[in-house]
Design a protein that fits this description.
heterodimer; A: about 80 residues; mainly alpha; 3 helices; B: alpha/beta; ten-stranded mixed β-sheet; about 35% helix
């Protein structure tokens, strides 16, 4: 599975949707994921990719990790995985 | 002052997953204590307990709820649903704004603590699920009950070890009696039957390896249980006006502190709580037909409790029945007073006195009618429920037949 497929699977599960309902330009808010859901998704992504995501729920917009939509999340993960390797 | 009645009851514990199932088990003198079943149990010296069996959280709760509910919260919500459904109440408008939930609990989300300590210490993981804190906090169950049933009034959790539920119910009683709220949801819950929970208790050397035999001369300690007991405390006129079924009346309570020792019980402290409850409820000692004992099955508690009852009641002590249902469901710690209140309701409403099972040898230091081994039929006007906690913190409730 590609990064994109894995992320979509995680986010779809969190949003209780089918993966086909999640697109690259979906935002987490569009998908009905609230702030606790965002934190839980980030945890699930960290577990899946064995990375540490710099994300502070107090000021998500100032975090180094862009969660503005699914594509941004995928790109951020790829960068973190690359840095780790 | 307002009169306070109970219009709903719910429970889940080792004897059953509902009030009718639990009362049937108490009537039969059935024992819910058995071999513990959880990870690492083979590393424990104490391997028995009153574990809730056949409870599947899956199906009752959705995925998101499951990630937020420790087992003690799951028990609490299950019992609250039964109690509130029985009461027939729905919380909207002004009732919703005033009604709240006060619960007793001692260990909080002990299962969550245990799992996550294991994960970071034993398995060396450096990341925990984001909901560990909202899952393990002692007030999680009260918070979820308020959300689930739309209770927007005063809600909090009381933590006084083995007296938590009695302190919580006494608090809810005061809130309804004073007119502060027409309805309060109250009771308590506990779930510390996990490796770390039982290991901690083991250290104290007060646990029995084979059975809980309160008041019996050969008793050798307490046995832990788990579960929840939840009640609807309602102002009498409010209940009557809507034609609610009334289970019994709550007529008094008292709290006292031994101010003596962190674990050893005090006869004086217990006696002051018992006599205080009689005074608060304007109860003549001769009216009390049944006491649900704290009755832990430890050497110290049972003789101290019997001496306190004898002191308060004098010659009347020979005319009342006192039993410990912990012999059947185990000691639910912060939830114990709530489950035990059911035995008081059964005595008042159904005229059935729950027995002290496992009773084998009379103890001259516990020379009261402890209703050994078999339930008994009797008409009871007033019942008391005792709870005497570590910390020397005591709370006694008084109920009357209605």
């Amino acid at each position: 599975m590609s990064t994109q497929d894995k992320v979509i699977a995680i986010i779809a599960e969190q949003a209780v949707l089918e993966p086909s309902d999640v697109t690259l330009d979906s935002t987490l808010a569009d998908l009905g994921i609230d702030s606790l859901g965002v934190v839980e998704s980030i945890f699930a992504i960290e577990e899946e990719f064995d990375i540490s995501i710099p994300f502070n729920a107090n000021e998500p917009e100032k975090s180094d990790f862009d969660i503005s939509n699914v594509a941004a999340i995928v790109a951020g993960i790829d960068k973190l995985v690359l840095e780790k390797a | 002052m307002k009169r306070v009645v109970i219009t709903g009851a719910g429970t889940i514990n080792a004897l059953g997953h509902s009030v009718p199932a639990t009362l049937a088990a108490m009537r039969e003198g059935r024992c819910g204590i058995g071999q513990l079943d959880f990870r690492d149990v083979e590393r424990l010296a104490i391997r028995i307990g009153g574990q809730v069996r056949g409870f599947e959280a899956e199906g009752r709760f959705n995925r998101q709820q499951m990630s937020l509910y420790d087992r003690f919260t799951q028990f609490t919500l299950t019992a609250a649903k039964e109690a509130i459904e029985q009461s027939g109440l729905e919380f909207h408008g002004e009732l919703s704004a005033k009604a709240g939930v006060v619960l007793g609990n001692s260990g909080g989300g002990m299962q969550t603590l245990d799992e996550n300590y294991r994960s970071v210490y034993e398995d060396g993981k450096n990341r925990v699920h984001p909901f560990v804190v909202p899952k393990l906090m002692n007030n999680a169950a009260a918070g979820h009950v308020s959300m689930r049933f739309n209770l927007k009034g005063p809600s909090f959790t009381v933590s006084t070890a083995c007296a938590s539920s009695n302190h919580a119910m006494a608090q809810a009683f005061q809130m309804v009696r004073s007119g502060m709220s027409p309805v309060m949801i109250t009771g308590g819950s506990e779930s510390m039957l996990c490796f770390g929970g039982v290991k901690a208790w083991e250290g104290l050397r007060v646990m029995s390896k084979d059975a809980c035999r309160p008041f019996s001369a050969n008793r050798n300690g307490m046995v832990q249980g788990e579960g929840a007991g939840i009640f609807v405390f309602e102002e009498y006129e409010h209940a009557k006006a809507r034609g609610a079924e009334i289970l019994c009346e709550v007529i008094g309570f008292a709290m006292s502190s031994d101010a003596a020792d962190i674990v050893m019980p005090s006869k004086q402290g217990a006696a002051r709580a018992i006599s205080g409850a009689l005074q608060d409820g304007r109860i003549d000692a001769s009216e009390v037909g049944y006491i649900n004992a704290h009755g832990t099955g430890t050497a110290a508690n049972d003789k101290t409790e019997c001496a306190a009852v004898a002191d308060v009641f004098g010659p009347q002590a020979d005319n009342l029945m006192i039993s410990s249902t912990k012999s059947m469901h185990g000691h639910l710690i912060g939830g114990t007073g709530a489950v035990e209140l059911l035995a008081c309701i059964m005595a008042l409403r159904d005229g059935v006195i729950a027995p002290t099972i496992g009773y084998e040898e009379p103890d001259p230091e516990c020379a009261l009618d402890v209703v050994p081994n078999e339930a008994r039929e009797a008409k009871v006007a007033v019942a008391l429920s005792n709870a005497f906690a570590f910390g020397g913190l005591n709370a006694v409730l008084a109920l009357r037949k209605i």
